[in-house]
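ARCHIVE CARD
Drawer: 12
Card no.: 0347
Subject: one protein chain, sequence and derived structure
Cross-reference: see card 0346
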Amino acid sequence: MKTKANYKSEIFKRAWVLFYESETEFSNCLKKAWRVFKLKRAMAKKVVAFTYKKVNGSIRYAKGTLQEVFIRDVKGGRKPNLRTLAYWDIEADGFRCFRIENLVRIF
């Protein structure tokens, strides 16, 4: 049961960060946090296609994963940022990240 509390804690922390930054309703922030969690869980198992809005306003289609098979030379040691989601981009062969409120769709 400990893992259940851990993922719910992460989801609510992300939702509160979104709530304070975007000033939208908490229910919408919680929905976005759940979508990010589902994306992260799917990327831990396989390569997932998704889209997000970049900082310049364009939409980016990405194929990413969090599997250890693809991730090489991870130096780590940094505290995870709840505002962004980092992933290994299959096409660019490198790490990328995006702001979690900009997630558009998971395929």
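Annotation on reverse: DSSP finds two helices and five strands in the chain. The mean pLDDT is 90.
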